Amino acid sequence: MRSRSSNSKYYGFLVLVLFGLSLDRGYAQDETIKITDIVPHRGGVAEQPQSTLRGYLQNLKDGTSIDVDVRKTGDDPLDIVVIHDRTTARTCDKDYVVANREVKELKTLDAAYWFDPKKDKSYPLRGQGITIPRLEEVFREFKLKKKPGAIIWIDTKDDENYPFAENQKLYDRLIELIGQYDLWDEAHVEVGGIKEAESLRNRDRRVKLGYWSKTADITEVLNYPHISRIGTRPNLAPVVAERIKSAGKKYHANNKRYTKAGIDETLTYSPDCLGTDHYTELINLIDVNAYPSLEIVTPEDGQIYAQGQTIEFMIEVYDANGLSDIQRVEFYVADKLLYTDQVSRKEYTFKWKNMFSGQQWITVAVYDREGFSAKSRMLIQTGSFKIRR
């Protein structure tokens, strides 16, 4: 289970497994990359509304693998939908807590409402009937249309407002669906640690597991035989790559420049590279610049505060070209710029006195020296109790 990452990067993610490229760029010449080794992040967020069946169908048409984030719903019996965030506010036309709503309610939302690929506020797919998919819908299409060798990466998301035992019910349904569609070879579930891995394996020993770490502290996972792939941020590649490979596991990170350090898979932000004719373009784009990213570490999205309370935000930024490539970080409230920090570093802290009543969007943006950027938004609420959304 990956920790919450930057929610609003403005470029599509693709995971590209580098077994060697015949592009005369210093890599192995005896192997070639396969289209199924590309995994567009959340369906390819630069080109399609993220985490929608429309995006996944395009992935399958292109012949790639697919990547899903999954959450439990409020249905009884429990169901699973494909969505990254705890709430629907960032991607849909209404703001619901996913775990509090039944599928029939979530299906009424427009999942393409905020999709704006040209960043011109045109929102071209609003009102086109694009909804939040159930995981079962994605599994069904994947089973019917996948290319040989394609995989489906599954990142499970807990709701922090529910106890551990309640969130574990998601695993029961997930394992049931993997078995129902016989995807034991293709489905890879990303876990947050050994406890979670064992919980899944206790349900069925056939489940395939992966792990993502923000740090180089991976000894426990390296020694655990049932996790077959480990991912980190690419700046850790020189430290962890040899250890991961020596343990017989696959290693992925998000920039090709570290491939010689032993990365098997690389995460890139470049859009428009899904077809087999675009590999040269993809590699050129990655070489030109590595896009920055950021994460709002604290507070949690949707947290409630008293009016007049001072809220402290901690932001972590990352750039594979090095932190010196970060030009500035900007802090917005209700789309109004309140603060700019132009000192390059990993962590940024902002304090803001919340004088608003009700709900307010907070936006943080990071820019590098080449002009590329990433943004993350969160919803802050003022009140004395939580409202079911």
- Computed over alpha carbons, the radius of gyration is 20 Å
The assigned CATH architecture of the largest domain is Alpha-Beta Barrel
Unreliable stretches (pLDDT < 50, length at least 5) are 2-32, 255-261, 266-289, 384-389
- Provide the CATH topology of the largest domain: TIM Barrel
CATH superfamily of the largest domain: Phosphatidylinositol (PI) phosphodiesterase
Domain unit count: 2
Tell me the series of helices and strands, N- to C-terminal.
EEEHEEHHEHHEHEHEHEEHEEEEEEEE
Strand portion: 25-35%
Q: What is the level 1 CATH name of the largest domain?
A: Alpha Beta
Number of helices: 9
What percent of residues adopt helix (DSSP H or I)?
A: 10-25%
General form? globular
In quaternary terms, these chains amount to single chain
Distance between the termini: 24 Å
What do these coordinates show?
The protein folds into two domains: 8-288, TIM Barrel, CATH 3.20.20; 293-382, Immunoglobulins (Immunoglobulin-like). The chain contains nine helices and 19 strands. It has helices spanning 53-62, 103-106, 135-145, 164-167, 169-180, 194-203, 219-222, 237-246, 279-288; strands spanning 8-9, 14-17, 38-40, 66-72, 80-82, 152-156, 187-191, 208-213, 227-232, 250-253, 265-268, 293-298, 304-305, 310-318, 326-333, 336-341, 347-353, 358-368, 373-382. The strands form three sheets. It has a ten-stranded mixed β-sheet. Strands 1, 13, 15, 16, 18 and 19 form a six-stranded mixed β-sheet that branches. A three-stranded antiparallel β-sheet has the order 12-14-17, with no helix packed on it. It is globular and about 50 Å long. The chain starts with 7 loop residues before the first strand and ends in a 7-residue tail after the last strand.
